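## tool: complex_structure
## caller: assistant
## args:
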Amino acid sequence: MSGAVREIRTPFHEFEVGFNVIIDLIVPGTRVLDLGCGTGTLLQRLRDEKDVVGCGVELDQEKVIRSIERGIRVMTLNLDEGLEGFPDRSYEYVVLSRTLQQLMHPGRLVREMLRVGSKSIITFPNFGHWRIAVEYIATGKTPFCSTHPHPWYNTPDIHRLTLKDFRDFVKTIDGKIEKEIHIINNVARTSAFWAHRRAEWGCFLISAA
Amino acid sequence: MLRNAREYADSDGLYGRVNTQYAEFPGITLESGVFLGPLTVAYETYGTLAPERDNAVLILHALSGDAHVAGIDAKGKLGWWDAMIGPGKGIDTNKYFVICSNCLGGCQGTTGPPSVNPATGKPYGRSFPRITIGDMVNVQALLVEHLGIRRLHNVVGGSMGGMQALEWAVHFPDLVRSAVVIAATARLSPQGIAFNWVGRNAIHCDPCRVDTEPGQGHVFQRMGRGLAVARMIGHITYLSEETMEEKFGRKRTLRDMEGFLYSLGENGVEGGEFEVESYLEHQGSSFMRRFDEDSYLVITKAIDLFDLEGSYGDLVTAFQNIEARMLILSFSSDWLYPTAMSLTIVRALQALKKDVSFVELDLPYGHDSFLVSAGMPALTRIMRGFINGVWRS
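## result:
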């Protein structure tokens, strides 16, 4: 079954649905800080579709340059070093899309996000998906799947967290979940049955409690 | 060897023939309060100023640069940033009107120590007044106004040019739409001051003859090679250890006819056994031929004095009026103006919620990375992307 799972193109690999979910959460004309902005795709769409004043943070040089070529404001910074220099409440939204699971110190950064932004939007692949769980039990090996496509010994995804893990985590950093969206088979849902086992991705809107 | 052809492979003089022009001004009052005039400013322009006069880009050169930034001059020499500026290049002359002038205190056409002091009829030499980066920028502003430009689309410079770009954004917020500050700092570090001090000391230690004529000041006649030594020190600070290793290693210069590695130069002076030595030797000697030592003293002093933090109390105060979209660029291997210094600028701009981008380029060539052709592909994309992005917005 792992072969079949691997072939699934998840919404976040296609970018479309994943970005749409984030874009839908953002009020037009606001300031958005995108952490791990990649080549600036999300910020470009936010600028064009929502008149957002954006800034990206990215460490990869090629991606930084691509962002600048798109006319996106960007900073070469390492997220594991925190958000020093960003004033409190200087953005309406701080976005951390598909990057949480790759950080060395996620707790430190998300606390910083709650300081810098009025609201934070965090998306991550759900390691609690039932197929992953079944594969784990059936094979006894760390599962491969479209949301976790790398072998354990060579992966940027150093944390394998579930939706339930994240809910607990938000409590420990004194945050509050304002909205929770699940992406199930390419569709964004808010109150799906058994979501924590069916969602490939979770998208959370959180703020300081 | 040296700044070899390969490093400047992108410098092809594509823009074609350019001539240095000269603008005359009555003078300016320096930040020290001293009046300096009349003034000549040497400059070159490339491309065409749009009817709206909104497409001007001002290039700001580093310590030893000049107005000839692109194209081919009368002597057939390529501009110092020709790889960046020209038709279709990073700063596209089909689109932008590019200006570059020799800085105040320089020796390549703009008023500086080698210029004749009208009061004495002799060159200013050591009597040239102390100037600052701010004075250089004020003179550039005279030129910009003279060219009929009300607002610059972009100002860009590296090293000392980066200090000027920053000063432009601080001093003339209404005149600058965007600024690119490359490998620069808001205040020269004590380490930087120290290197400049050693360089000036080399010049001061030169044997010289002083002719004193009543009422006409002093005329120094240099006899030594202090300026060359100063330049060699400078060059060490512009390169990274890694570049030196890769470029020179411990390679020896060519053997002489007897097969001796070690050679004595023309006057019994060591000519340089290792390639790195002969590289420095060449840099020093060629600098002697093209640069004026009093200009070196005046300009390095101006760099030493540059301290926006000290002048305004702190950087946040210094930057509070900035309107320009800022791009701060540093190089990972630059140990003279390291990334941390660029980050200090970035943090202060962030604190004020200014529009600032920050790029640290991972290039191994040290402080000089912005002039090395291997760094040009990345730098070209960044410059083009940034100034076109500002243009569209």
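## assistant note: Chain B has one domain: 21-392. The first strand of chain B starts at residue 21 and ends at 25. Handing back to user.
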